Give the backbone structure.
Amino acid sequence: MKTLAVLLVAILAGVAAPTVRLAQPASADDPRPKQDALKVPEALRLRHEAFVAEFTRATKDPGKVGDAARSIEKLAVAHFAKGKEVFKPLGLLPLLAERQVPSGHAKAREIAASLRENLPQIRREHRDLIVGLKKLATAAKEESKPEYAAFAEQLILHIQEEEEVLYPAVLLVGETLKQKPDKQ
């Protein structure tokens, strides 16, 4: 797992080309049932797992890198855990894009409503995480550990992606589903 996390961080940092196939994209004749669509999309789930693995590795570093990672560990772990729930409505996007109404979408609406309510707090957490990640990047550069600097920079970029793309997408899924009758 450690090797996979390092490879994923290198890929995200643009240092290495992918050598393993992580997820199979769904095809039009995909036999998987559609009722499991309320789940974090596979690519996002794998990316988050890689972030968690690399962050965990950083917290175990004995130097300044570890100190910086441990200083935001509680906040980061809580934030990573929230992603396991908040991004589930994104699994409905392929169905919605095909103008299909997924069954059992009340839960997706609930998740989106909760996200909308909690966005101010999440943004405050993001600001605190970014401050800590910038310290982690600085420590990594001071200790000549470029993999941790690249990781911190990629995680900062991912936080920006959450705010600019992923959270708005979850909110749009929720709004779209408000306009559709429940099919359970």
Observations:
- The first helix runs from residue 2 to 12.
